């Protein structure tokens, strides 16, 4: 392959696809394989204007040698066998690195000590049912293999050798693995010789967010070696979208979930700035905005959502933004520096943006229809405590009102007029008032949409059309531990999990979605964590000190705890998530007493 090539002309016949069979070794043997493909395939990134970008043959992923020599390893006694009780974890020094040592059912396990997602110390997490759950964002790792079992994040932990001699626990690890602190699972490579040239693909994924990327990676991890095409409206390869509103200055390369060499190495083709306008399920074909047609065998729909915009007078003035891309976020910061910023909407996106801008802007104002921020999600009391934190950081709130007009001077925003008749000075405005599923392109297809435009799927992420799956923010699905209630959960972690389940069922593995929802937000250097599904809660039981922002809030419906939120109370949210994941119900009376010893995770 390699070199430039043009895409097939619209309507042209697709060339014959030559198929080859690749023998996939069992997981134990596959682990010995080098991570890097030796081939020089050059997957393109198809642009909306018809040009092609392709990767250079000399771009390589770093691949650790499968058989490290003695000088590449470090081995040492890290503790006495009686130093750890069953169910305990300890961070131990090994050479110039650290290792997480776990004792479970009398056996010792040694793993990477940091969560590959954002680097959380796993020793402060929760050990349960043969896995350790991250204290920050809830990712789960199998202690026997180091494999990632629940999300967020893409990579697994390194697993190190353990031996017991003369009552001492010895750990042996490669120096490189100690430094890397993350392990990308062994993946198959694309061996279809027509990849990149043909107008057909085995798997087409519409949307390159967390759901789309995890689906593609899972297919490769499971040994799938045929063509995968991932298409996105974005101009960038898949990136960490939740970071946009938390770190508006971040550049696309800092947000990238995988480097471009990764996609080349594993033959995952990414078509950027590619808009699907029609899905023809009868002929298994999609049509792009520029007329390009692509046939598929299996289809994943993960288009995400589109932000709602203001419909008031003056909505067309300049310097009014929704935060959808890195370019949006970067422009907001540039325009806000030393000037007046207004944020419309006091949900997660709006409040994260407001928090970030306080150190950049001259003034930051928040406009919200509810009485307090986060009211529907976190309740009145928690919302008010967070609002006070913002007010202490110079944020001005205009509550129980909305925007009636955006006024401009020479075409650029100058004032935001509220229905309460107040006028707020504004040089830049960020709108965070919710989103709608980006499923308009499916309305003429036979794929079912509900009245709000969401794609209903079953537990296997299947739509009503065989061979068509859906995942991410645009779906409703049965939430197992809430009696299979059909819900939409637009969380980053949930999109990961759904992408994996969709991939497994493309391969006929009959997997079902069962993850407990987990989300987080960060404002003024403080993190709030949340697990469960709290819609319809009728009471909030708070333990700790709301004023000090050191608390845990249990959301109950009837006699049952359905969600939990906390600040400065780790690892309580991960512990609750683990209890809910085990299938056990938590009763209201258990959390009313204030005795939370039943939830305390072990770690030292």
From TrEMBL:
One of its GO terms (cellular component) is mitochondrion. Residues 76-171 form the Rieske domain. Induces apoptosis through a caspase dependent pathway. Reduces mitochondrial membrane potential. Belongs to the FAD-dependent oxidoreductase family. Keywords: 2Fe-2S, Apoptosis, Electron transport, FAD, Flavoprotein, Iron, Iron-sulfur, Metal-binding, Mitochondrion, Oxidoreductase, Transport. The keyword Metal-binding applies. GO terms for biological process: execution phase of apoptosis. PANTHER family: APOPTOSIS-INDUCING FACTOR 1 (PTHR43557), APOPTOSIS-INDUCING FACTOR 3 (PTHR43557:SF8). This is Apoptosis-inducing factor 3. It is found in: Mitochondrion. The keyword Membrane does not apply. Gene3D superfamilies: 3.30.390.30, FAD/NAD(P)-binding domain, Rieske [2Fe-2S] iron-sulphur domain. Its main location: mitochondrion. GO terms for molecular function: 2 iron, 2 sulfur cluster binding; metal ion binding; oxidoreductase activity, acting on NAD(P)H.
